[in-house]
Specification:
Elements lengths: L2 H11 L43 E4 L5 E6 L7 E7 L13 H8 L12 H7 L8 E5 L4 E7 L4 H16 L5 H17 L3 H13 L13 H5 L3 H11 L5 E7 L3 H12 L22 E7 L5 E8 L9 H28 L4 E7 L7 E8 L4 H18 L3 H21 L5 H13 L7 H11 L5 H12 L4 E7 L5 H12 L32 E4 L9 E6 L5 E6 L6 E8 L8 H14 L9 H11 L4 E4 L4 E8 L3 H13 L5 H13 L1 H6 L1 H12 L12 H5 L3 H11 L6 E6 L3 H12 L23 E6 L6 E8 L8 H25 L7 E7 L5 E10 L1 H12 L8 H18 L3 H14 L3 H14 L2 H12 L3 E8 L12 E2 L1
Parallel strand pairs: 2-6, 7-11, 14-18, 19-23
Antiparallel strand pairs: 1-2, 3-5, 3-6, 4-5, 8-10, 8-11, 9-10, 12-13, 13-14, 15-17, 15-18, 16-17, 19-24, 20-22, 20-23, 21-22
Helix pairs in contact: 1-10, 1-12, 2-8, 3-28, 4-9, 10-11, 10-12, 10-15, 11-15, 11-16, 12-14, 17-20, 17-24, 19-25, 26-28, 26-30, 26-31, 28-30
């Protein structure tokens, strides 16, 4: 893993945004003859002094087509096949904007071996879901087609390669299919739009005017509406060349077998003539300091400082890796400075620093913060001060040493966890690395290289880079707000901050951890015996649950899982949750969760806890939920005792202060307009709560609900919650049961002074049968979300075969929505239907449909949903849609998260989820067409209700109060 990716993982661990995946792509030097010149048909290691991962088999056919075979076993018995086409939207001309993405869509609409309309059913028949196991994406410089095959036998592999070969040179571009797909693409364009995207689009247009970087892969409506079959075909045949393609195979496969099959599938592929070079993409202007004032429909305010640098591309080498390591150290140190400033002055809700000044298509370094209303000026002045301080005085030896130590832990952790990565994660990483022109190195080699290079990372070198980056003269200051300042105000605030008197940073000591007196080890003979039971089915990897009760009544559950090496999770579960409590107590519980999220571990602040987080690979999270409270942390299994200590400290010594309460309130206030005035967010909150009768336990926290609460209220709630039983400790993952039990006994054996849980039952959910609600919001995006639900309960002790029939019937309905609303009408990009069973709510269950569209088509969609009636489900249709469900279930059972979620649900709700899980596949397999048809009919004839939210952007009228009827 190249150093640039290690830093991305590390900063993400610290909880900050580091940029989009596009930032990983390297651009050409200004002196190069062609854009994307590194797309030369060679592997990066062929022109580098870095060694390729010996576990990967690299190959190239005589026609230039490349392939890589990567053995992996997660999930076992499956394989991911990716076709990486090194051509994306930057290869388009001005009158072709959106063509690369349009071509991607046409791959699923008629090819050499699959007539229009046949491929998705073919996928389903072979156990693959559309969108989940079969997908694709288009970016600036790549189009990637992805198949997650349900098996690894020769027939299945050959089938997958045949499909990808069709994508490579067998698309048909039938004029009728091209015309019909336009609606799907426009629906996707609308689906992905939002206020933040609009703001980013406007900013990009100003920052990169005159370059190709202002164009989005989705394209423009003008170009999309002018698409013809002939023009798409011409683009496809121009850019899809075998020498610019890579087949990536990850899973339970062997290299010799895959090499034979790849040669058979792609060996005779041809595209006459050399692959063309893209037209120049242009160079952003580097013209000193400027300001951008953005009017935005947000409650808080966003401030960004973007430092611009010339485009450059460096081929991967040890020298390049040393430079990136130095850049990563600067990034880490500056990111930590922002956190320190925030802890001291509480100026912003979140802050980030990204240092890609010699990487990416548009190299830059970015400081960004989100603050409260009217907070932009103080925040921008502070950023100016911190930037000048780092550029002038640099970073201390202590800061640099901590950065290097954090990076080393990231590399070491990756060595232990690599074998637990999923097939798709490995394939995604390979494609990103290959297209960025980085060598595919092994985790062990990365760690060794880091150890070699770190001795050359001196303070003098690091601070020279800090001066170069943070002292840059080409920068853009951006302030986004509901009422933004003018450009001159922004420039003046920056100058004031930069003119402040500076004092060098002094050495800062971090508190010791653990800081609480560590309990004595429990003697082995005093440990309780553990009972165990097998959870897995015959033929599956062994999964057993171990259970014991400590002398004080604390329950311990140990769940060793063989799926992800090097990873472990610790949970502390307590209390019965707030489902049955008054609205005021629910708000108090949600406030406590929000306040604790601003802390670190016990009395150790969030900033000081970062060093612990870097060691264990995870953060402590505490949550008060409807069914119970939890403290959870997952991370490096080699640091299991530290993980347990972190959870124990948080439980034994929770700390809440006024600053955390203030920040929690500010974050809530900053989200008000988004939550109340955007279609997407209102649909998530009000849309779901409507079908639960507005029950408070299914609503999120509002700022007004925290106004009457003080810190003492929250502290008392947290303290009292810890007294409510039962107390349970769950340790799962790559763990040893005796060691896990010993740690649980040592740290939690004396904490259980809890009281019995409250047993009052929650009020029954009230379904709004026959209700129709319309909500109008002043969203700037032309979107509508329609939801319709039918209530048909399923009791916890009900016949599981009935539940399976309803789930399969919902799958057939979902597929019908795809065919009708997406493919035929072009009205919705991703309509959904599902049957949701809620055992904790006395069997309350809904069949629910959600459709996203625009104002112009919302009437047609509403009419379609109104007329929806049952149909007879045939055996072919049922078997085709059953197969992906069974594949998904099988893959889920081979993941740690699956078993961890089931165990948590069983403990919180007192229902046999683990037992039910072992019958799900059998019940799905037995459902007959008659049973599925009966289930569909029963659900669609059940009491129904509908809810719609629409923007007033296009004919929506004035905003109305939530719940307005029509």
């Amino acid at each position: 893993m190249p150093i640039f990716r290690a830093m991305a993982a590390l900063v993400a661990l610290a909880g900050c945004l580091v940029g989009s995946p596009l930032d990983l792509y390297a651009g050409p030097s200004q002196t190069s003859l062609a854009e994307a010149f590194w797309y030369d048909g060679k592997w990066a290691h062929e022109h580098s002094d870095l060694p390729a991962d010996p576990a990967i088999t690299f190959g190239r056919l005589p026609n230039g087509f490349r392939y890589a075979v990567i053995p992996n076993a997660n999930p076992k018995g499956r394989v991911s096949l990716y076709l990486d086409v090194q051509a994306g939207s930057l290869m388009e001309k001005e009158d072709e904007l959106g063509y690369a993405h349009y071509v991607e869509h046409m791959a699923f609409n008629g090819t050499r071996n699959f007539p229009p309309g046949s491929l998705v059913p073919f996928f389903q028949k072979h156990g693959m879901s559309f969108g989940g196991d079969t997908n694709a994406h288009t970016a600036w410089t790549e189009t990637v087609y992805k198949l997650n095959l349900a098996g690894t036998d020769k027939e299945t592999l050959s089938m997958g390669l045949t499909i990808l070969r069709d994508f490579a040179d067998g698309m048909q571009f039938d004029p009728k299919e091209v015309e019909e797909e336009l609606g799907v693409i426009l629906a996707e364009k609308n689906h992905r739009d939002n206020e933040a995207m609009q703001s980013r689009r406007q900013r990009t247009a100003e920052l990169y005017a005159g370059t190709a970087f202002v164009n989005e892969p989705i394209g423009t409506e003008e170009c999309l509406n002018a698409v013809t079959s002939e023009r798409l075909s011409a683009f496809y045949h121009k850019w899809y060349h075998p020498e610019r393609m890579i087949l990536v195979a990850v899973g339970s496969v062997t290299a010799p077998e895959m090499e034979r099959l790849v040669a058979e599938a792609f060996g005779d592929m041809k595209n006459t003539g050399p692959a063309p070079a893209p037209q120049t993409w242009g160079n952003p202007k580097l013209d000193g300091i400027r300001a951008i004032s953005e009017k935005r429909a947000i409650s808080g305010e966003d401030v960004s400082v973007i430092l611009h640098f010339p485009r450059v591309h460096q081929r991967d080498s040890q020298k390049n890796q040393l430079e990136q390591l130095t850049d990563s150290v600067v990034e880490y140190c500056m990111q930590r400075r922002l956190q320190e400033r925030d802890q001291r002055d509480a100026l912003w809700n979140s802050g980030r620093f990204m240092n890609r000044w010699r990487q990416g298509l548009i190299p830059s370094a970015v400081l960004g913060v989100n603050t409260h209303a009217s907070g932009w000026r103080d925040s921008l002045e502070a950023l100016a001060e911190e930037t000048r301080l780092a550029a002038t005085h640099g970073f201390t030896d202590q800061e640099i040493a901590q950065a290097l130590d954090a990076l080393k832990k990231t590399y070491a952790r990756r060595v232990g966890q690599r074998s637990g990565m999923s097939n798709t994660d490995v394939a995604d990483e390979f494609v990103r690395t290959a297209n960025a022109d980085f060598v595919q190195t092994s985790p062990a080699a990365d760690l060794n290289l880091f150890e070699q290079l770190r001795k050359d990372v001196k303070a003098k070198t690091v601070n020279a880079v800090a001066r170069k980056v943070l002292g840059g003269n080409n920068l853009t200051l951006v302030v986004g707000a509901a009422v933004p300042p003018d450009q001159q105000e922004i420039l003046q605030a920056w100058k004031r901050g930069a003119a402040r008197e500076l004092a060098p940073v002094t050495r800062r000591e971090s508190p010791a951890f653990p800081y609480l007196p560590v309990p004595k080890e429990t003697p082995a003979k005093a440990l309780p015996s553990m009972e165990s039971r097998v959870l897995s089915l015959p033929g599956e990897q062994d999964v057993r649950l171990y259970q014991a009760q400590l002398r004080d009544g604390t329950e311990v559950y140990v769940l060793p899982l063989p799926f992800e090496s090097g990873k472990a999770a610790v949970q502390v579960l307590y209390g019965a949750g707030y489902a049955a409590q008054p609205d005021a107590e629910i708000a108090l519980a949600q406030t406590a969760t929000a306040v604790l999220a601003e802390g670190g571990i016990g009395k150790i602040s969030r900033l000081d806890a970062q060093k612990i987080v870097e060691t264990i690979g995870g953060t402590v999270k505490e949550n008060f939920g409807a069914q119970g409270a939890s403290i959870s942390i997952d991370g490096d299994s080699r640091r299991l005792e530290l993980l347990v200590q972190a959870a124990w400290t948080q439980f034994a010594d929770p700390q809440l202060d006024a600053a955390a309460l203030q920040k929690a309130r500010r974050k809530l206030e900053a989200q008000v307009r988004k939550k109340r005035e955007t279609v997407a967010e209102v649909a998530k909150t009000d849309g779901q709560a409507f079908f639960y009768g507005g029950a408070r336990r299914y609503r999120s926290l509002e700022p007004e609900e925290t106004a009457g609460l003080n810190l003492a209220d929250v502290r008392d709630f947290v303290a009292n919650a810890r007294k409510e039983g039962p107390l349970r400790v769950v340790i799962s993952g790559d763990v040893n049961p005796p060691q896990a039990l010993a740690l649980a006994a040592r740290y939690f054996g004396g904490l259980n002074s809890v009281q019995p849980p409250r047993t009052n039952a929650p009020a029954a959910l009230a379904f709004p049968a026959g209700g129709k609600a319309l909500v109008k919001v002043p969203d700037t995006v032309d979107q509508v979300v329609l939801r319709k639900a039918w209530r048909l309960d399923f009791p916890a002790d009900g016949d599981r075969s009935v539940l399976a029939a309803r789930q399969l019937a919902a799958a057939t309905l979902r597929d019908k929505l795809r065919r009708d609303l997406r493919e035929r009408m072009g009205a919705s990009y991703s309509p959904s239907a599902f049957y949701r069973n809620m055992p904790a709510e006395n069997g309350y269950a809904l069949l629910q449909i959600e459709v996203g569209t625009d104002n112009a088509q919302s009437g047609d969609v509403a009419a379609y949903l109104e007329k929806l009636t049952p149909w007879d489900i045939g055996a072919t249709e049922l078997d085709r849609l059953r197969a992906p469900l069974l594949t998904s279930l099988k893959s889920g059972r081979a993941s740690s998260q699956y078993w961890q979620r089931l165990l948590t649900a069983e403990l919180n709700m007192g229902l046999p989820f683990l037992q039910w899980a072992n019958t799900n596949g059998e019940e799905l397999a037995k459902v007959t067409p008659e049973e599925a048809t009966a289930a569909l009919r029963e659900m669609l004839q059940a009491p129904a209700a509908s809810w719609t939210v629409m923007s007033t952007q296009s004919g929506g009228g004035e905003a109305a109060a939530p719940g307005e009827s029509f």
